[in-house]
Every structure is written in C-alpha cells, then in structure tokens.
Amino acid sequence: MAATAFLVFAAPERSARPASQALAEIERMIDLAGYGLTQVSLTGHRFTPDRDIFDAIDLRAAPTMLSFDSRAAQDRVERLPWIERASIERVLPDRLEVRVIERTPVAVWRRGARHYLIDKTGRVLAAVTPDAAPSLPRLAGEGAATEAAALERLLAKQPALERQVELAERVGGRRWTLRLAGGGGHQGPAGGGGGGPG
To answer: pTM of this prediction?
Structure first.
C-alpha cells in the first residue's frame, strides 16, 4: 500500500492532480492489488437487521483498507438502537469481522398510544404492539423509562409485591403508582428520581 501511494504521488505527470483524485487512484490500485473490502462477517446480532449494520459500516464511502475508518464505523454501529457494544477487526487482504453485543429488553413502556421495548438504561429499542413480550413488566408515564432500573431494584426487595404488579405508572416525575393483579392499587411516596413504591 505504501509503495502504491508513493508511486501515485511521486509520478510527475500526476503531481498537479487534486489530493482527492490522487487518493481515488490509490484506492483503485489497492483494489486491483486485492486489498479492496469485499467481505464482511457479522456475528452477535439477533434483532438488528444485517442491512442496518452494513449501512452503518458504509463501505461505499471507504472501499479499501486504506480509507476505511474502523473507529468511526464502530461508533456508527453502536448508535443503532439495539447495539450495546461493537468491535470491528480488519482481516487482510479484504475482510472485516464485525462482532456486536445487543441490549437486553427489560420492560415495555407505554407512552401515549405507543408501546416500546426499553433496556435497563431506558433506551428505546423498538416500537412494539401492546401485547408484545408478555413476560416483561409494563411501565407508563413520562420519565418511566429512565427510572425503570431504580424501580426494579426497589421491587426486588419486595418479591411478593413485585409478582402482583401489572403496570407501574410514573406520575409527575416523582412517584410510582402500581396497578396490581385483581384490580388493586399501590401508590408510592413522593420523592426525587429515586422515589419508589414504598
């Protein structure tokens, strides 16, 4: 690659060419030499479509090892809703190995008329139907998603109550109102972000 770059930039008849044209020619020569990025191996994903990961990697903008920025591509992949961590390894001459770890949904959050799967940080993973993932807790109200982990910790200390909760609604950003199986209710105390079900 270095020799190719030297030849392109050192050639007198090409010295006046803009850098972008010179780089394009270097990449063309590298591609002809067998160092174009032609293979991508994806592992670790279940909910993220292949196409979304390929789009985030964006090989169209960086067709060879020379121009491909693995760190920037990794950042783009990790911005996808389901992706928690990603790693991208270059494997000469022409392959990338992309490994991802996806986030785990912990609850279904109702916001207005929409329902979303969320992870432990409150990150929205996907829109779902109201009856999706019946084994997951149901949350509602503004701010409920970001306080889901705190609520889970509180309810874990009261397993008998936790088993009865059908819906936990965040009220006024300060308290939880719990709807229990059988139509009962339980209102938590007022407080800050950590206000719990009491």
So the answer is: 0.73
